[in-house]
């Protein structure tokens, strides 16, 4: 099973908790901290840099910043006024929010990008599905 990866800043407990909630709501999305070695290698290969942003990586597409927020809202079936509010507020509030919460401003990188094959190789271990065997009682 190929999982989508949600790359987020895992530097604070409440952000890790929020990422855990995302993971529990969707079996096919795995949150991965931005500073994980495999993510850093992926970013170098994909962008030639290590931009600090929110990423959603699907089978062959990388959603960044505002596009990642929009895609997550779409995946979770959040539409209407609530989705409009998130979409409208993300761009102007991401920089001050990032400085306050993360201690750094997210890079001004937004959009949808094709997943580079060489970059994808760094994600394979993160996407693997882990099955836990259950012993009969």
Question: Outline of this structure?
Answer:
The chain is of the alpha+beta class. It contains six helices and five strands. The protein has one domain (4-126).
Can you describe this structure?
The protein has one domain. It contains six helices and five strands. A five-stranded mixed beta sheet has the order 2-1-3-4-5, covered by helices on one side. The two termini are about 30 Å apart. The protein has about 140 residues and is α+β, with helices and mostly antiparallel strands. A hairpin with a 3-residue loop joins strand 3 and strand 4. About 45% of the residues lie in helices and about 15% in strands. Helix 3 packs across helix 4. The C terminus is likely disordered.
Please write out the topology.
Elements: E1 4-8, H1 13-25, E2 29-33, H2 37-47, E3 55-57, E4 61-64, H3 66-75, H4 80-102, E5 111-114, H5 117-120, H6 124-127
Parallel strand pairs: 1-2
Antiparallel strand pairs: 1-3, 3-4, 4-5
Tell me, rounded to a whole number, the average pLDDT.
83
Report helical residue fraction.
40-55%
Question: How much strand?
Answer: 15-25%
Instruction: Please provide the count of β strands.
Output: 5
Low-confidence stretches: 131-137
Distance between the termini: 28 Å
Rounded to an integer in angstroms, the radius of gyration calculated over CA atoms is: 15 Å
State the major sheet: 5 strands, mixed
Counted up, domains total 1
- SSE order: EHEHEEHHEHH
Biggest sheet strand line-up? 2-1-3-4-5
- The shape is globular
Class by alpha and beta content: alpha+beta
Summed up, the helix count is 6
């Amino acid at each position: 099973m190929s999982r989508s990866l949600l790359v987020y800043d895992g530097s604070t407990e409440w952000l890790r908790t929020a990422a855990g909630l995302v993971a529990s709501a969707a079996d096919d999305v795995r949150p991965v901290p931005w500073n994980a070695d495999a993510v850093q290698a992926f970013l170098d290969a994909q962008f030639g840099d290590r931009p600090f942003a929110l990423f959603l990586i699907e089978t062959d597409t990388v959603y960044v910043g505002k596009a990642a927020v929009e895609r997550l809202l779409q995946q979770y079936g959040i539409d209407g006024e609530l989705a409009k509010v998130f979409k409208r507020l993300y761009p102007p509030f991401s920089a001050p929010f990032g400085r306050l919460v993360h201690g750094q401003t997210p890079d001004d990188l937004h959009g949808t990008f094709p997943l580079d094959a060489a970059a994808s190789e760094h994600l394979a271990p993160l996407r693997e599905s882990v099955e836990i065997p259950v012993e009969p009682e």
